[in-house]
Design a protein that fits this description.
The chain has about 290 residues and is an alpha+beta fold. It has 2 domains: about 110 residues, Beta-Lactamase (2-Layer Sandwich); about 160 residues, Alpha-Beta Plaits (2-Layer Sandwich). The protein has 9 helices and 12 strands. Helix 6 crosses helix 7 and helix 7 packs antiparallel against helix 8. The chain is elongated, with a radius of gyration of 29 Å. InterPro entries: DGC-Regulatory_Protein, GGDEF_dom, Nucleotide_cyclase, PAS, PAS-like_dom_sf, Rev_trsase/Diguanyl_cyclase. Pfam families: GGDEF.
């Protein structure tokens, strides 16, 4: 059935609907330039001036195929508004049926920024400890698997540093759990600033933390990192007008000599850590087979 909507809907109504639409719309003229129609702040502006730099090339390539080969596409990309705000757009490009007006194709996009922010929040909840904001056990496992793959491929070494804050229960019992949580947050911050750029520190739970050390040559290199961590944590903490001091017991296991997988290396590092505690705490040990 013939669509005769244009016979009784005036052009100014079309224009008003387009300009007030919350969705983004660009049309491509005979030169292949995408010109904005909606929303109103986008009217008359070129598409590519809005696009976030790292998303620009893939979008330009998709638009080129759309114009040259009439190949539709769907793509998520980011745009930067004049006020500097970053928005996520879910776009679809498609050729227009008739080109008598000189318009060859169109690109429509929905603002999915709210969805993306919610997605990021859920991802953070899944992979980061909510108290310390450090990676959690799940993210540590993912990074370990990636690091192990690279270590096997390029014959690199890895180390797992397992540390436990000594007598942390005494802090909770004496000052309360809120103070204990604040101390954990401050300790996590110190740990993050005491490791190298490629390494990862995560909270395993309670007062236990793990550091994944990558690409070192000798055990002495790991020992220097452990010493830096211990010295950092040994500095007094100022909390709610109180000066508190804590120490840590630390154990270390190394790939490939102590294990070939994450569970074995964590267990070996944990065993070495408890051996450190039995030495009188505030010590560290490398794992050694009995």
């Amino acid at each position: 059935m013939e669509n005769r909507l244009h016979d009784f809907v005036p052009d100014d109504l079309y224009r008003a609907v387009v300009l007030q639409s919350p969705d983004w719309l660009w049309v491509f003229d005979e030169t292949g330039s995408p010109v904005g129609l909606s929303p109103e702040p986008n009217y008359g502006s070129a598409l590519f001036r809005w696009v976030y730099e790292s998303d620009l090339l893939p979008l330009q390539q998709a638009c080129r195929r759309l114009l040259q080969e009439r190949e539709p596409f769907a793509m998520t990309f980011r745009a930067v508004l004049p006020d500097g705000a970053l928005v996520w757009l879910e776009g679809q490009g498609y050729p227009l049926a008739g080109k008598s007006s000189g318009w060859q194709a169109a690109l429509t996009a929905k603002d999915i920024t709210a969805f993306k922010k919610q997605e990021e929040r859920l991802t953070r909840l899944a992979y980061y400890d909510p108290l310390t904001q450090l990676p959690n056990r799940r993210l540590f496992q993912d990074r370990f698997i990636q690091s192990l793959h690279m270590a096997k491929r390029y014959h690199h070494k890895l180390a797992v540093i397992y540390l436990d804050l000594d007598d942390f229960k005494r802090i909770n019992d004496t000052y309360g759990h809120a103070t204990g949580d604040e101390l954990l947050t401050m300790a996590a911050s110190r740990l993050s600033h005491s490791i190298r750029e490629p390494d990862t520190v995560c909270r395993m739970g309670g007062d236990e933390f793990v550091v994944l050390v990558q690409q070192f040559e000798h055990r002495e290199d790991v020992a220097k990192i452990v010493d830096r961590i211990a010295q950092t944590l040994n500095q007094p903490f100022e909390l709610n007008g109180q000066t508190m001091s804590i120490t840590s017991s630390i154990g270390v296991s190394c790939y490939p000599e102590d294990g070939q997988d994450i569970d074995t290396l964590l267990q070996c590092a944990d065993t070495a850590m408890y051996a450190s505690k039995q030495q009188g705490k505030n010590h560290f040990r490398f794992f050694s087979n009995p």
